[in-house]
Design goal:
- There is one protein chain.
- The chain is built from 16 helices and 9 strands.
- It is of the alpha+beta class.
- It has 2 domains: about 130 residues, no CATH class; about 220 residues, Transposase Inhibitor Protein From Tn5, Chain A, domain 1 (Alpha-Beta Complex).
- A 9-stranded mixed sheet has the order 3-2-1-4-5-9-8-7-6, sandwiched between helices.
- It is elongated, with a radius of gyration of 23 Å.
Length: about 375
């Protein structure tokens, strides 16, 4: 990096300011590696392809002169064992709260669909410590392609998504957004939380809501057989072809549900939706019906687009974490380290989304590892 760029950055990185409130549990007199240095090291290392403490520590040794352009690193960089101890001691909830504060500054006003979905880091279990794998519940902006925030729960307590989602929503500025959640998060308290924050919701329905799904399914079955002659319905159709398959989706939405609102009393409920999906492949044809409730008006095109945007999180977030960041292969397991390191990955993903150029995620990570000027520009954009 040339002197002019170094002076332009002035050693000051805005994103670190959002982590200044992160409590450091270590005794101050014994701290050799300040927390801001550890965070900068970890972010840069993961940006350049590191996937565990050994590779993060190796990056620190190889790139110490680069890191010192931003912070002193008076004692060099920590070893892989020291990194594990530091991240294991950090409070995971506080770390994720700081991450959310940073992403809100990065993303600005949130518009469009906010997809809330969970993903398990399959090898993060710790048998010796009797801890299950980490299940991370993330909020993802489908329009901006940014991870807005996350909360970690143990897979053994996966039902705690129900408590993790409201905690996540409390920290997000979602006014005017459409929050989409699968059936696990289809809960009255979550609906109330979203409406209170002046946003809308689209929830998937399964059997976890008593008679609600049965009522919605029965209504649509009867009316679909009659071509909806007894009720007003909005319709939309989309078709996609590729990867050896043709998939069509017929979306039906209605707000003629006064009896349903009175019976089930969901905050903000305005419409119910059926998606009839047909997939044709070389192996044959499959059909599926899925059901949803929403606080949006009965506009099949709008709600259908929101539902598709929700499932897009699989490719735009989960697939990238698995393939580019090898999330399922990560063996970090001790104390809070799995949850905290898992939070570093979406932070890195956000940084790469903001990075200059139109290269793929994989290519951007390679370029960042090869070109210190490019890595510095990524940091400057944060």
């Amino acid at each position: 990096m040339d002197e002019e760029l170094a002076e332009g950055l002035g050693g000051k990185l805005d994103f670190l300011e959002h982590f200044a409130a992160l409590p450091d549990p270590r005794q101050a007199i014994k701290v050799l590696y300040p927390l801001d240095e550890v965070l900068l090291l970890s972010l840069c290392a993961v940006l350049c392809g590191a996937d565990g403490w050994v590779s993060v520590a190796l990056f620190g040794k190889q790139k110490l002169s680069f890191l010192r352009r931003f912070l002193p690193f008076a004692n060099g960089t920590p070893s892989h064992d020291q990194l594990g101890l530091i991240f294991g001691a950090l409070d995971a909830g506080a770390f994720q709260t700081c991450f959310i504060a940073w992403t809100q500054a990065l993303s600005g006003t949130i518009e469009g669909v906010v997809a809330i979905d969970g993903k398990t880091a399959r090898r993060s279990f710790d048998r010796a410590g009797n801890k299950g794998a980490i299940h991370m519940v993330s909020a993802f902006s489908s329009r901006q392609k940014l991870v807005l925030g996350a909360r970690a729960v143990a897979v053994a307590e996966k039902s705690n998504e129900i408590t993790a989602i409201p905690e996540l929503l409390d920290l997000l500025a979602i006014k005017g957004a459409i929050v989409t959640i699968d059936a696990m998060g289809c809960q009255k308290k979550i609906a109330e939380k979203i409406i209170a924050k002046k946003a809308d919701y689209v929830f998937g329905l399964k059997g976890n809501q008593g008679s609600l799904r049965a009522d919605v399914e029965l209504l649509f079955a009867e009316q679909y057989a009659l071509d909806f002659k007894d009720m007003a319905v909005s319709r939309a159709t989309t078709t996609d072809a590729g990867h050896g398959r043709i998939e069509s989706r017929k979306v039906f939405a209605t707000d003629d549900i006064d009896w349903l609102r009175e019976r089930h009393q969901w905050k903000g409920l305005r419409s119910i939706v059926m998606v009839l999906s047909t997939r044709e492949t070389a192996r044959g044809r499959e059909t599926e019906r899925r059901y949803y409730i929403s606080s949006l008006p009965a506009d099949a095109a709008q709600i259908g687009a929101a539902i598709r945007a929700h499932w897009g999180v699989e490719n735009a977030l989960h697939w990238i974490l698995d393939v580019n960041f090898r999330d399922d292969d990560c063996r970090i397991r001790k104390k809070n380290a799995p949850a905290n390191f898992t939070s570093v990955k979406p932070a890195t993903l956000n940084a790469l989304r903001k990075a200059p150029g139109k290269d793929s995620m994989k290519s951007k990570r390679l370029i960042a590892g090869w070109d210190e000027n490019y890595l510095a520009k990524i940091l400057e954009n944060l």
